[in-house]
Amino acid sequence: MSKGTKGIGVAGLAVTAAGVLTNLLGYVVPLIGARRLSAADLSALATILAITAIAGVASTGLQIAVAVHRARHGASSVTRSALLTVVVIAGALAVALPIAVLVLHLPALATVLAGISTVGVVAAGRWLGEMQGDQRFLPLAVGLAVLAGGRYGGVIAGLAAGLGLTTALLLGAATAVLVLPVLHLLARRPGVAAEGEPLAARAVLTAGGATLAMLVVSYADLILARRFLPFDASGEYSVGTVLTKGALWAPQVVTIMALPRLAQADRRTLRIALALVTACGVVLVAGAAVAGGFAFRLAGGPDYVSLGRYAPIFAATGAVYGLLFVLINAQVAAGAKWPAAPLWICAAGFVLAAWLVLPHTLPGIAWGALGTAVVCLAATSVLVGLRLRASVTAPRPEHATLSID
Q1: What is the pLDDT of residues 71-89, one digit of tens each?
Q2: Is residue 237 a contact partner of residue 362, using CB atoms and an 8 Å limit?
């Protein structure tokens, strides 16, 4: 194994570990909350986390936009667009959270503190994007782990100590803000001047919109199951979506590491990324087919083992969305104007089909979700193919050398 390949492998493992840590800490918050909070406070915590998760999509959008811009133009100013993103999200939260407090009967101070934490998470996207765009994946992995600790660590500590919902979210807001200087130091490259073209705010909007569309279309089945299935079947469906999300996010590291080269129009990287994600999906679907009952036991406990026959459907849906995630990022990296359009159309079509056509059963919604994922993938693949064909005669930029710091 060459030194470069070994370095890429180590960086990939580090980024994967950071992603696992983030997901694990996010899972621990409601887990501890269920044991330390009253039913009313637990419900409030779950609702607040859902609202802030939607707003936090802007962090991923900012990270992607900065990474793509950095890979194309090198060190350049992103401060204005990053600050604008933070201000817009803070303003949106300032409007939305009081309404949520009134309509959903949420504790006001706890909700405000969660909003402050979310603004910190959004701001962090700027420095994560700089490290990703520079292909400095080991510092990026450290940054992802630091952000996960800041985002969830204070809340977990507060809940574990029995300090109550508001105090736990106060600690969470403090840690989310305090980690920002650490991320700034990780991303800093002394002696590198920002000489390239400044990042346009529209690029952040496009990346954020694509990320939000991906979130909506991949969670639509869970919402529709809640709407159309009996409560017990809806609960069973929510366990199945754990397999979907696992298959979707398992190969996430491939997209993270491929994005800078996708921004440099590297078609070979796109082919390799699609091949790797496909291989991962095949393995996961095959595993679900062989050990579906065990997969449901891991996801929800022994009461759900009988649903194992549906495991391949959920895993296949996640695997297809994993491929779609690669292509959407490729479209964003290429500067496509409306990369999320097929996702919004498919999500609307799924809702309409669930309302009018699909059987209101667990397998009915699950097959509908898989069909939606396949249609989204096919439509996006066509758009990517057309773009590649149109650019076949265009000059290709020089590829930056992959660095593993």
Answers
A1: 887 777 788 888 999 999 9
A2: yes
